[in-house]
Specification:
about 150 residues, mainly alpha, 2 domains, three-stranded antiparallel beta sheet, about 60% helix, elongated
Length: about 150
């Protein structure tokens, strides 16, 4: 079993454990000796680990543009996903609206818009629990109607 040692907090992607895993996986399974292929496999592994949606955006953008432009598309999607995870968690509920982990208080109308735009970080179980709570207390009818 391959154990990648690296620094997941390093700004040098080639030192990230997922990059290292992808690089060596390619080196061990391919006998071509093409170092560029190993580097590409390392990047692929890192992008997939960091953000599967971002990696998909990278591959879509890669057709017809440069790798640099494709990485911009990757980071745009990956950074949005990270921001939603950090700022889109619900930490409080009141009759007035929701309090998010960023400290922002939003009314139910804005919460419904954020849910529709996938800017609230909710597991399927949390969606059902939130909907049941809102329906039971008769709060946020606009938001509870979207939580299906």
């Amino acid at each position: 079993m391959l154990v990648a040692q690296g620094d997941p907090n390093s700004t040098d992607i080639s030192k990230h454990p997922e990059y290292i895993k992808g690089y060596f996986r390619a080196a061990f399974t391919s006998m071509s000796g093409d170092r560029n292929a190993y580097i590409a496999a390392g990047w692929e592994s890192y992008r997939q680990f960091k953000s599967p949606e971002g990696n998909l955006a990278y591959h879509k953008a890669l057709t017809g543009s440069t790798p640099k432009e494709a990485m911009k598309a990757f980071w745009a999607v990956a950074n949005k996903a990270e921001r939603v995870k950090k700022e889109g968690k619900i930490v409080g509920i009141s009759s007035q609206g929701l309090t998010l982990s960023s400290g922002r208080k939003v009314d139910f109308h804005v919460a419904a818009l954020k849910y529709k735009a996938k800017e609230l970080c909710l597991t399927p179980e949390e969606v059902y629990r939130l909907r049941d709570m809102l329906v039971g207390k008769e709060w946020g009818k606009e938001l509870s109607a979207q939580l299906v």
